[in-house]
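Input structure tokens:
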């Protein structure tokens, strides 16, 4: 009852906040469309598998399972829901699902209407999604419910005196990322778990194998070593751009996490102050001759490419000697395996402790943490002056990704066979 009251209060607060926030307004409006979409696209006779992801990161973890299900079990209709507008807006047209919509707020009325219309045979919640009323109602209905790529830590609220294990106990089975999660759950009497690793590793391998060459990046890079800064934020840029002012033989490729005109201009200004000429990716798409003229005009200056569009980064990493994944001075680092899969060392800031792959890659020597300009310079100086150290770190990164793949196969076989 306390949980449900909290959800009602949260719902009311979200409606009020939607008057002032465009992002929240999109979610509230999207939920209003959910029941109409379910009624329109799902028939009573459909066999439905429901995948739920909070946002884009969780979607990428569930995607390998969805795509395999589509190929091997076409009799199922795939329903995909998101909690966050940042996930839904990017993947609302995802062709791997029959219907993409928002998950409604977890109130009893919403839950009843959603499950009645969707009537899933199987529900798969990805990583950190534990909605108590949904889970209880699904179990009562007899729907098989699974958690995929979940990971647990002792400091999570479930395991505190004020927490509740009720939502976790509703799962038929949990496919966890590591042995620590399995052991922690076992301490609390939850035994229906299997350690499979992270399905995201299967996804980044699939992306790597399918990645098409990018002629613009090839022409930009030529034979120069490239430093790829992916999902880059301001605090990262203030560290690595001044460093490369002393190493202008390296070309910079910067893919900012936030592609806004304000941030793009801040990057261009910082590059100019540090002796780098820069060009935006879309400029080269429209006028490829700009690159030749820019190269001829650089003289003593370095050259930087700013990726001001989405969907390119996962393919761009292949052109790097070293990669940086941003976010380590904010809410947390972004997708480290996406870069490491290409067999290059990955650097990131200090907020990385909750990211399993980052910790594992650090342990095997495939990734490295920097806290400031000095630690960043120490890492890069070693790579620049020791090609052997650079190659060894790259091999460690690639080997980790390849040797820990296969979670999708294990989950799929247990759920659908």
């Amino acid at each position: 009852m306390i949980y449900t009251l909290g959800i009602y209060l949260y719902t009311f607060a979200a409606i009020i906040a939607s008057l002032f926030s465009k992002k929240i307004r999109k979610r509230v409006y999207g939920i209003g469309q959910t029941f109409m979409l379910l009624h329109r696209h799902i028939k009573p006779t459909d066999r439905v598998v429901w995948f739920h992801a909070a946002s884009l990161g969780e979607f990428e973890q569930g995607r390998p399972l969805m795509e395999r299900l589509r190929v091997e079990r076409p009799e199922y209709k795939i329903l995909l829901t998101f909690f966050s507008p940042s996930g839904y807006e990017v993947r609302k047209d995802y062709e791997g699902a029959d219907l993409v919509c928002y998950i409604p707020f977890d109130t009893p009325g919403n839950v009843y209407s959603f499950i009645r219309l969707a009537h899933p045979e199987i529900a798969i919640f990805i990583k950190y999604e534990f909605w108590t009323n949904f889970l209880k109602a699904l179990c009562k209905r007899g729907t098989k419910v699974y958690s995929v790529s979940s990971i647990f830590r002792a400091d999570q609220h479930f395991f505190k005196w004020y927490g509740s294990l009720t939502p976790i106990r509703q799962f038929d089975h949990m496919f966890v990322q590591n042995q620590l999660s399995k052991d922690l759950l076992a301490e609390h009497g939850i035994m229906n778990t299997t350690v499979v690793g992270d399905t995201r590793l299967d996804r980044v391998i699939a992306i790597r194998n399918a990645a098409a060459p990018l002629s613009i990046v090839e022409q930009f890079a030529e034979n120069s070593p490239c430093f790829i800064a992916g999902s880059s934020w301001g605090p990262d840029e203030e560290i690595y751009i001044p460093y490369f002012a002393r190493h202008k033989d390296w070309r910079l490729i910067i893919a900012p996490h936030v592609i806004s005109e304000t941030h793009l201009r801040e990057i261009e200004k910082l590059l100019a102050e540090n002796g780098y000429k820069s060009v935006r990716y879309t400029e080269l798409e429209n006028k490829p001759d700009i690159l030749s003229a820019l190269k001829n005009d650089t003289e003593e200056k370095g050259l930087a490419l700013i990726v001001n569009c989405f969907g390119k980064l996962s393919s761009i990493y292949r052109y790097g000697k070293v990669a940086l994944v941003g976010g380590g001075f904010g809410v947390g680092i972004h997708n480290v395996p996406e870069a490491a899969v290409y067999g290059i060392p990955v650097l990131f800031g200090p907020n990385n402790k909750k990211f399993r792959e980052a910790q594992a890659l650090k342990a095997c020597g495939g990734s490295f943490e920097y806290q400031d300009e000095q630690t960043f310079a120490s890492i890069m100086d070693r790579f620049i002056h020791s090609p052997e150290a650079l190659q060894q770190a790259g091999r460690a990164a690639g080997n980790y990704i390849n040797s820990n793949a296969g979670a999708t196969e294990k989950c799929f076989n247990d759920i659908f066979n």
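The chain has a mean pLDDT of 93. The CA atoms of residues 123 and 413 lie 15 Å apart.
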